[in-house]
Amino acid sequence: MSAANMHQRIVRYGELKPCKTAFIDAHTPGSDKKENFTIIGAGVSESADQHVHISDTPGFNIGAAGQPPKCRNSLHTHTTAEVFFVLSGRWRFFWGNTGDAGEVILEEGDLINIPTHMFRGFENIGTDYGMIMAVLGGDDAGGGVVWAPQVIEEASNHGLILGDNGVLYNSKNNESLPQGVAPMPTLSAAEVAKFQQPAAHEVVPRFVARYWDMIAMASDQPVSVLAADGMLKDKPGFEIDLINRTSISNSPYSTERHEILMIMRGHWVLSWAQEQTVLAPGDVCAVPPGVEHSLEASMSGEASLFRVRNTDDPAGATHWI
User: Fold this and answer.
1) pLDDT of res. 321
2) pTM flag (> 0.70)
């Protein structure tokens, strides 16, 4: 892919198109105000209304969730990696079969690599609308979402039925399951009992990276946040670095990898060929392999971004070791 269509590979925060019916809990009180954004790849949305900004994937998906205060995302799990960082707001991540095995509070810039094979959810506990950005392992984002049984049962009480084809049907809109499509089966009690329920002291040290710890480590090179030898050691098919104004040269470079730039703080000048643009917080840019480009923080003050690159590792699952 050439540099000629780079402008088409920049998704501006202010131009993100939300979907309010992306998941089965879209009508459930307490979860009915959330917005889902699919930035790169098809993501895991269960709704045909979901807008996809960049359809091709680099071995992983990029998405986001926006929620007003006291709004939560219901308990679910994935078969591949699910990594979040907080773009804005204050968030509580919780996990366990009923959501009470453990929790952690994340502030702006904090990152969590949530292990697979355990149910997880999150809620905005701040005072304003907040946004978290997500990286999901695999081109197909792990084949979708597995919901805790109580989530499916409660959703049916509010008119939403998930088919075994992964599509939502809204009885309030006179929709019903098509012929040949059965309701998505719920997990049995025996199946649910096999899911992990670790305590917070088991999760936080291994799977959470604090923003100011990352910034403190950034000097003359990017900080390896998620990698085989990073702050959070894992090989889910992608790596994540944190870059600030002093940790990257403004000299042009290219790489054989897909490179996704996700702006956290400040404004960054992205240059390529004979063109340049300014990236602001919340903007996402997908730089194809082989495209020579450069980055430079454009103003004084705090400036940081997360850089995600694909690796040769398969789309992996973060299991307990």
Assistant:
1) 44
2) yes
